[in-house]
Please model this.
Amino acid sequence: FEPRRQNFPKVLTGNPFTHPGSATEVESHDSGLNLTESSEETQSSNLVLEKGVKIIDQSNVYQIEELRGYGAFGKVFKCRKEQTGETVAVKVFNKIRRNSARLELRAYKELSVLESDKNNLIRFFDSFIYKDHTFLVFEHLDVNLNELVKRHNKILSVAEIRPIAEQLLVSLRALKSIGLTHTDIKPDNMMLVHSDSKPFKVKLIDFGIAIKTAKIVSTSLMQPKGYRAPEVHLGLPRDEGIDMWGLGCVLVFLFIGSHLFPLNEYESMRLIVKWMGLPVNSMLENGVRANRFFTQKEEKKMGRRIRRFLKLDKNRPKLMWRLKTKTEYELDTKRHVYPANKLHHHLKSLNDLVIMKPYFKSPTERADENDFINLLRKMLALNPADRIHPEDALKCTKVSTPSTLTISEAIFHR
Model:
């Protein structure tokens, strides 16, 4: 599933609104691609990809209309496929990130056994190599969920979140069925097909760091900061359940317009403990990173009857776990802890999320919100063994009249 290597691709430059004959053709042997801001990359390039440039594959011509995004890998452009007039997204990897492109292509090979539209996954069309740069071609989507909330100042109601939750649970169910974990679940990697149409149709994108679940290394850090599951923080074995944790955080973001957990790892762990309690002893004893956040202290003396009632071994070390203080963490890690924002101070538990929307609500809306919070608690279970699975989340409700009530309408219903 390697990208096709093109021997004679061309890049054309010129105003996209002028006659095609007025564009300048540049053969592959004397052109370069400026894909990053680094001086090394700029010096090796003499052609900038910009509006109006035409990228010619062996069988297709893609004309750049605008830059849609960029990252460490390179850039994503909105392009028009000249043969059909179809709008597509073209992701360009610079030569330094060639291996990243290979890994992403490997993920799309795994995904090829699934129906993209049925499982709400972005459609992958094609790949090719031009002058040591890899081009991946996808369907073009509208805006991601981060743009929807931040740029359009749009906080969603439970009624609007409901179909989004269902569609993304279907995506996670599909990934679980083929043993693949996305590992990068966040609002930026979920895009609306059309932001103007409701109910929202959403798709999961960017499988650049997806990995076979069986190959996940328990000691490696993964997931975006603020969307990182407790087992990842603690250095415990993990599976596709980390994606469920990430999705739970995304749904909270849609509901209140703010990220549930801050970027700082200590503050994230402190809030996990504040809202969900201390991890069980087995998680703290087996986590290779647990000592980064937690320490042990001596238990208070217990009477013989209490110890017998709790079935505690009299020879057992009288130690118990506690979260390190901010000062202890900073001294041990040599890292400064930036305090969480006011939102995090006000919330005492996930139940308090409804306080973020104090406006008048009908009894039905209140019931919907309560059921939404109940589902969030299952998605954000501290112990991964207790976390809900996609199939169970989709079937968490028994509906008496399934013919008139879809899963998306029932998912937060009692």
